[in-house]
Design brief:
By secondary structure, this protein is α/β, with parallel strands linked by helices. Helices cover about 55% and strands about 10% of the residues. The protein has a six-stranded mixed sheet with strand order 1-2-6-4-5-3. The radius of gyration is 28 Å and the shape is elongated.
Amino acid sequence: MAEALMIQGRSIEYQRMSITVSECILDPLNPRIQFLVGQKSAGVTQKELQDLIWSKDAVKALAQSIYQNGGVYEAIIVQKTNEGYLVREGNCRTVSLRHLTELYPGDRRFEVIPAMVFESTLTEEILAVLLADMHVSGKIRWDAYEQAKHVSDLHHQYGKTYEWLGNHLRLSKGKINELLQAYSAMNDFLHRYPDPNNVRKFSFFHELMKKKELRELYKDDVEFKDRFYSWIADGRLVDAKQLRNLSNVLSNPEAEKALEKMGFEEASRVLVKNDPSLESDLFSAIKKATEELKRAPANEIQDLKGGNPQKIIMLRELSRAIEDLRTLGGLDL
């Protein structure tokens, strides 16, 4: 019996059924590995496609989970063709089952998979919207790079407006901009550094686009863009969180030089040497208190002149604490 989904104002019919994994055809347009597929100028075979998908650690973990669960229960999305069933969503589950059938031949639990079977009515645009519902705004989300690619495809390939993206994907305009700009920057980086492992470095570009100062520097300064790419490719930046302190490094010539020569960790040590408050809660509090005291408002100063007893007590305790710290440290301040 046919069921239907309402997508883009159209009723799209499909059937729920179980199909054998051997009937499944992996999709070379699978958004999760399109960059890897694109590197093979002569196209990609089903065996190569399977190996590319299986190379992802998350897929190996998925196979273990499927084994423990005794099979796949979440239906994949396939499109019926003359050759078999083209897997439009669920390639990772399909590859996981293929490996399990090799390990456990004859085990029916891994030979079949539930599927939503569509005919030719499933266009690329309708599929893109359906996948967005499932993996961008849905509960089973792709990683940030895959989400950004999908948002970019919806916007540039299928003409979805910011308003549509915001309403449909429940994303703010700022978040949409971040994803689109980060994906564009990532593509430029991959064009220069096409190592397949670099696909995993999208978080650097996502973090970059969150920081206004760095975002504008990337946009306006070609030299900075080139250097930023090299820092990532050469391992001088190893964690996207490091970008949260990159502006401080760039504003310190000694730290910037350390970044260029040895990497972010050494640059951070230079910053800490010059400003202990960056890694010490005590000196962070001292720095903040000093800044507050320097800009003490006139009304607070006037209140002290008036002899507010509790405020005077607090200042005396602060003075004694500083004196005790000076004595213990053997300092002459």
